[in-house]
Design a protein that fits this description.
The protein has seven helices and eight strands, in the order E-E-E-H-E-E-H-H-H-E-E-E-H-H-H. The chain is of the alpha+beta class. Helix 5 crosses helix 6. The structure holds zinc ion (ZN).
Length: about 240
Amino acid sequence: MSFETDALVLKSGDAGESDRIVTLLTADYGVIRAFANKAKKSNSQMQAATQTFCYGRFSVYTGRDSYTINRAEAKEVFFELRQDIERLALGQYFCSLAVELIPEGEPAPDSLRVILNSLSFLQKEKRSKQFLKAVTELKLISLAGFAPDLSACGICGDNPAGNVYFDTDSGRFFCEKHKKGNFVITPGVLTAMRHVTLNPVDRIYSFALTPADEELFGRVTENFLLRRTGKSFKALEFYKTVSLG
Ligand SMILES: [Zn+2]
């Protein structure tokens, strides 16, 4: 049996002398690992289309216990990210988030869209890395079923106008009176978090923050993501080492 799907190559590694094993984020079947036979032979169409950061149309054969790519056709590539170590590292972090958060076998068109949009903005340098990292983290964790509840104070149901307390363990915020949580967040950051969690994917990038709020927004989303997943990400550590200064 085989199927066709749009997919992004998240990771690509060698499998023997001429083959590759690639991790794909597919629109229809989530994250899968598939063999690409003869993909290392230069000048094959498969050669270009099975590299990390290639988005395209894939025809995949389903074997008894493995997937094999029959055909791959690139539609859009984000290879320019390789020219800058910081942007490359951040792009790889986005891919590793997909590997960890998106299960095999379930459709994931929205998560795929988030990663494609973020890689595209990152490549074109349209938004800051800090902004793209925060939006991507928050939307992917929300789509994975861990969206924060930002409707009102987790205890009294109030919606205060000023700063509030955000608790990255529960994903709730609290008013001045019910003070609970590990971050004090500004109205600007709360609005940004609501914007990203509540809007459809194509609208999540359309807002702006002051530099101070953007920095805080980034610290909150990263902490929230790490607490919610309980995981550490090598790609995130690597991004931090190259983005210092
Ligand atoms: Zn309260």
